[in-house]
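QA checklist item 7 of 12: single-chain prediction sanity check.
[x] sequence parsed
[x] length recorded as 97
[x] structure emitted
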Amino acid sequence: MDGSSSGSMKSFIWVYTLRAMKFKCSIYHPKRFFYRAANSIFAKAGRLAFEEVIVQLLKQKCLPVLLYALEVCNLYKKSINLLDFALNRLFMSISNS
């Protein structure tokens, strides 16, 4: 592969590696895209839709964004807790409406 194709593949894969002694993946970008997708759903549906509808939309549209390609990463306890916090925070915001 030449340099131009590897740059385009990186943007499609969404797996960002960190410089470390062991192979580590960054969850910053998936979490950022997850919140962006969730906020777009909240902006469109607002507080007018039923909670069940919003939960279903989040499961179908946002959860795959968060979990995409994580099976290739060795997730450490801290990373798992950060992902768990993102999901818990989202569901807390739904239930507080």
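[x] summary fact logged: Strands lie at 16-18, 24-26.
[ ] second reviewer sign-off
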